[in-house]
Specification:
Layout (H helix, E strand, L loop, with lengths): L1 E5 L9 E7 L6 E2 L4 E6 L4 E5 L4 E5 L6 E3 L3 E6 L8 H11 L32 H10 L17 H6 L21 H16 L2 E9 L1 H17 L7 H15 L5 E4 L2 E4 L5 E7 L2 E3 L2 E2 L7 H16 L5 H4 L4 E5 L18 E5 L2 E8 L2 E15 L5 H16 L1 H4 L5 H4 L3
Parallel strand pairs: 12-15, 15-16
Antiparallel strand pairs: 1-8, 2-4, 2-7, 3-6, 4-5, 6-8, 9-18, 10-11, 12-13, 12-14, 16-18, 17-18
Helix pairs in contact: 6-7, 6-9
């Protein structure tokens, strides 16, 4: 029996996916539920599991855009599994991991005939076809590194050669053109859209992280031991500070919809994380109702899924406000771009010890710049500045504003 495998719908509103990588080859024997391909949608990269065991025939190439419901491969379920195939495959792969596959000589057209007698051209000397191309480009043949036999410059070398921008240094000047994944293209499209379709402004402030550092140093070990290895990080403090500020300034927790404003009474916080496929923004649902442990555990779960390429469309759908932490990469200051259709995004940055004035005296404290980018169409300057000041107040007075003066109870210790 021949089973037709069709592209499943990865989520609402998605009509096509792109074959990112085939994990098997045409003619391979696959097991049921074995991952056979990675497919990109405009929201996530997902694995495609085999629906049955058998010999597979691929019907799409890597990079192809395939409509949801279209056939991407056939599986012959009547085919028997080759005996000893696993052992032979392993032995072959261990013996010659990088062994090139020999190809049969290809017939050449008359126009390509001058390329045939490779041995007649000395090292660095172009073939007649290559010389013609180089002359048209005004490129000196000796500046091109030949890949042909004995170092000769082939027609392909000449086609790829680019004019020198200055004195050749002898270093590599190669370039590579690769197609962006569907997810990366969608991220780019959304970022450009956010810049072009919103009245985006950014306001800045700075936070003295000393109070939070003191609390973390005192309770982080007990927190981790109590909650099964979940760490007490900065993100839970920032998330709780954001949910508090969103209650005080509800316009920041709203969105534009044509001539209407949609206001939310819940805080679904999108957390920007970096994964192997690029930027992912999974959502912590109803963060206003979560404890510090709940926030940290959910962020850890989502970060692991993003790192392992297991993030789903549902994980990233929605969100009323975004937090991004460029500080983990060493960013000192930035202007984060709004995650549409949201109206604002908070950027965290690197913590640096700097001298500041405290009660008329100069002291050294760990300081962090924070940035709030917002859509001025729906959020006024007063609300944006007040919102960021509210975050600063909560982070600099966490005992009173975030922990109810009882950290042991708040941390569930």
């Amino acid at each position: 029996m021949i089973l037709e495998m069709k592209v499943p719908s990865p989520g609402e509103s998605i009509t096509e996916v792109e074959i990112a990588t085939w994990l098997v080859k045409d003619g391979d024997y696959v097991e049921k539920d074995q991952a056979i391909a990675e497919v990109d949608s405009d929201k996530a990269t997902l694995e495609l599991p085999a629906e049955a065991s058998g010999i597979i025939t691929l019907k799409a190439e890597e990079g192809d855009a395939v409509a949801v419901g279209a056939v991407v491969c056939l599986i012959d379920t009547d085919a028997a599994k080759p005996e000893g195939s696993d052992k032979e495959e392993t032995a072959d792969s261990e013996a010659t991991p990088e062994a090139p596959v020999a190809e049969a000589p290809k017939a050449k057209s008359p126009a390509a005939a001058p390329e045939t007698p490779a041995e007649t051209y000395a090292s660095g000397t172009p073939s007649p076809a290559a010389r013609k191309i180089l002359d048209e480009k005004n490129i000196i043949p000796t500046s091109v590194k030949g890949t042909g036999k004995d170092g000769r410059v082939t027609k392909d070398d000449a086609v790829k050669a680019t004019p020198s921008m200055g004195t050749p240094t002898g270093g590599s000047r190669a370039s590579e053109r690769t197609k962006l994944s569907m997810l990366r293209r969608k991220v780019a499209e959304r970022l450009v859209s956010a810049k072009n379709e919103t009245a985006m402004l950014t306001t800045f402030n700075e936070v003295n992280m000393t109070p939070i550092n003191l609390i973390r140093n005192e309770y982080k070990e007990a927190f981790k031991a109590k909650h099964g290895g979940v760490s007490l990080g900065y993100m839970s403090f920032f998330t709780k500070a954001v949910t508090r500020a969103l209650r005080l300034y509800p316009d920041v927790n709203s969105m534009m919809d044509g001539d209407y404003k949609i206001a939310y009474d819940f805080c679904d916080i999108s957390i920007a994380v970096s994964g192997p496929k690029g930027l992912m923004v999974p959502v912590v649902r109803n963060a206003e109702n979560l404890t510090f442990r709940g926030v940290e555990a959910d962020i850890k779960r989502l970060a692991i899924k993003a790192r392992d390429g297991q993030i789903t469309v549902d994980d990233m759908t929605g969100g009323t406000f975004t937090i991004t932490n460029g500080g983990v990469f060493g960013s000192m200051l930035s202007t984060p771009i709004i995650n549409p259709p949201q109206s604002a995004i908070l950027g965290m940055h690197n913590i640096i010890e700097r001298p500041i004035a405290v009660n008329g005296k100069v002291e050294i404290h760990p300081m962090m710049y924070v940035a709030l980018s917002y859509d001025h169409r729906i959020i006024d300057g007063k609300e944006s500045v007040g919102f960021l000041v509210a975050i600063k107040e909560a982070l600099e007075s966490p005992m009173e504003l975030l922990l109810d003066n009882d950290p042991k109870k708040t941390f569930e210790l």
